[in-house]
């Protein structure tokens, strides 16, 4: 870019960051979108405020040929946001790029496969993490960021905060999960975290650490392979399997959507709240379902000696 283009880019780029913040985008989205804007600017070596529809088609053609459709969709949304909120221009992105609608079926584990994976996991912290993630139907980060204060043993529920949808929610706490949480917490006794990362005092540069995402993702794949499970297993498979098992047990789809914090694909179901009757029935069904799963828990002393 020449000096004028670079100066203009710096101005519009800062305006872009400001708008992303004002629109309440998450730090992850801000990072992805801003990277996309920088990449299209580098591709044409110019400030993106002057790009034509023909140039954008050329750019997206290069992305389609080199990147996944997921990456293409992110770039499309990022540039669309730039046009609408920074340039205040309408941008009809449909003629430029329209990713295909793909609805792949996710692999689901049976109850026996869930039990096998957790039983074959050799670290108590990973065992507990996998069980908590499955038995509460949580996302990866929702489990990792659980705190002691989130566990309500009196009302037997877990308070999930700052979730993907940026809405708090409560989920039933099965008795067996409470016992598993207690068993693991006694091995580290962290004052606030359920799954602290590293070793005591679990700090890095003055910030409290939680268990590493990469570690839990890598381990579950390795253990699944050792168990002879050929399915594509990852952390989200536990959550997806839990929802499927609930559905098979007769829990209503509405209750499951509320439990998981999902946005409903129809009408206003995503705003529905569970009635007390549904909450009680769901909790009973969850406890009944989980009581059938046999886990060989790692001994506390073995966990301590590994560290």
What does it look like?
The chain is mainly α and 307 residues long. It folds into 2 domains: 3-86; 111-306, Intergrase catalytic core (hpI Integrase, Chain A). The chain is 54% helix and 5% strand. The chain is built from 13 helices and 5 strands. It has helices at 3-22, 27-44, 53-66, 69-86, 111-120, 124-136, 140-144, 175-185, 213-226, 235-248, 253-260, 276-290, 300-306, and strands at residues 151-152, 157-160, 169-172, 203-204, 207-208. The chain has a 3-stranded antiparallel β-sheet with strand order 1-2-3. A two-stranded antiparallel ribbon has the order 4-5. Helix 6 packs across helix 10 (235-248). The longest helix has 20 residues, at 3-22. The protein is elongated. It starts with a helix and ends with a helix. The model is unreliable at 265-277 (pLDDT under 50).
> How would you classify the helix and strand content by structural class?
mainly alpha
Strand residues, percent: under 5%
Q: Class of the largest domain in CATH? A: Mainly Alpha
Number of helices: 13
Instruction: Give the biggest sheet.
Output: 3 strands, antiparallel
So, CATH architecture of the largest domain?
Answer: Orthogonal Bundle
What share of residues is helical? 40-55%
Mean pLDDT comes to 84
**Helix and strand element order:** HHHHHHHEEEHEEHHHHH
Structural shape: elongated
- C-alpha end-to-end distance: 53 Å
Nearest-angstrom radius of gyration?
A: 23 Å
Overall tally of structural domains: 2
Number of strands: 5
């Amino acid at each position: 870019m020449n000096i004028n283009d670079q100066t203009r880019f710096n101005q519009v780029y800062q305006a872009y960051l400001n708008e992303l913040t004002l629109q309440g985008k998450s730090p992850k989205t801000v990072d992805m979108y801003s990277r996309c804007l920088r990449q299209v600017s580098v591709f044409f070596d110019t400030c993106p405020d002057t790009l034509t529809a023909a140039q954008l088609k050329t750019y997206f053609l290069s992305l389609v040929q080199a990147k996944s459709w997921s990456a293409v969709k992110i770039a499309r949304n990022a540039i669309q946001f730039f046009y609408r909120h920074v340039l205040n221009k309408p941008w009809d992105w449909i003629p430029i790029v329209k990713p295909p609608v793909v609805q792949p079926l996710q692999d689901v584990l049976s109850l026996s496969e869930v039990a096998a994976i957790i039983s074959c996991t050799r670290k108590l912290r990973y065992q507990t993490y996998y069980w908590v993630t499955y038995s509460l139907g949580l996302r990866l980060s929702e489990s990792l960021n659980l705190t002691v204060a989130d566990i309500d043993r009196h009302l037997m529920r877990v308070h999930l905060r700052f979730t993907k949808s940026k809405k708090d929610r409560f989920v039933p706490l099965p008795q067996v999960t409470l016992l598993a949480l207690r068993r693991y917490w006694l091995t580290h006794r962290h004052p606030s975290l359920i799954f602290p990362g590293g070793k005591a005092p679990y700090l890095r540069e003055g910030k409290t650490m939680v268990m590493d995402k990469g570690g839990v993702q890598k381990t579950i794949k390795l253990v699944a392979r050792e168990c002879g499970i050929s399915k594509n297993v990852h952390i989200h498979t536990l959550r997806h399997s839990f929802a499927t098992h609930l559905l098979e047990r007769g829990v209503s789809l509405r209750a499951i959507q509320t439990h998981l914090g999902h946005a409903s694909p129809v009408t206003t179901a995503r705003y529905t709240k569970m009635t007390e009757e549904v909450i009680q029935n769901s909790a009973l069904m969850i406890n009944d379902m989980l009581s059938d799963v046999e886990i060989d828990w790692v001994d506390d002393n073995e966990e301590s000696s590994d560290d």
